[in-house]
Amino acid sequence: VTSRPCPIVTKLDKLSHFDRRAELTGFSPEQAKSFIYKYMDDTAMADKLLEELKVSEWCESLITAPYYCCLICDHFEQHQALPQRRTELYHRLVLRGVQRMAEARDLTDVFSDIKDAPDQVKIPFTNLLELAWTTLQKKQLYLQKADLAAA
Predict the structure, then answer these.
(1) Measured between alpha carbons, how far is 3 from 117 in angstroms, rounded to an integer?
(2) How many CB atoms lie within 10 A of CB 97?
(3) Whole-angstrom Cα distance, residue 38 to residue 50?
(4) For the segment 54-79, what is each residue's pLDDT rounded down to a tens digit?
(5) Alpha helices in 40-118 (DSSP H)
(6) Which of the two residues, 27 and 144, has the higher pLDDT score?
(7) Are 98 and 121 a contacting pair, CB within 8 Å?
(8) Which tens digits make up the pLDDT trace of 35-53?
(9) Helices and strands, number each (H, E), in the chain
(10) DSSP 29
(11) Per the CB 3.0–4.6 Å rule, which of 32, 47, 118, 136 could disulfide with 27?
(12) pTM of the full structure
């Protein structure tokens, strides 16, 4: 299963083990607005976010994707500002992943930057990032179980 357009997507019809195919569509502008109001505890902050989105075309185009919409809300809640670049948004995504990993391991350390994460989380996450980068350099869009075992 993939959400990325790549050569395998064009071959889905030829693969015998797929008996169904679904297309997931994003939020409509009204659904995105509704999500933002539900996500934010403060209506005034939601109003401010929606106003700032009108000025930021690249951010506004992302809120139709539910996960991006959630990330933008999360970033705005923390910083009271939209991310200036996509890299800020992706940094937030990675940070949230590391924080969730820490929570799953019952680590109570509070950190707002990945470099401050506990080693029990930072080391495996760094290994996973290195594996993802190596796989990407090979122009491979997926990982095999053997890749994960080797890491």
Answers:
(1) 30
(2) 15
(3) 13
(4) 998 888 888 899 988 998 998 898 88
(5) 43-55, 57-62, 66-79, 86-104
(6) 27
(7) yes
(8) 999 999 899 999 999 999 9
(9) 8, 0
(10) H
(11) 32
(12) 0.63
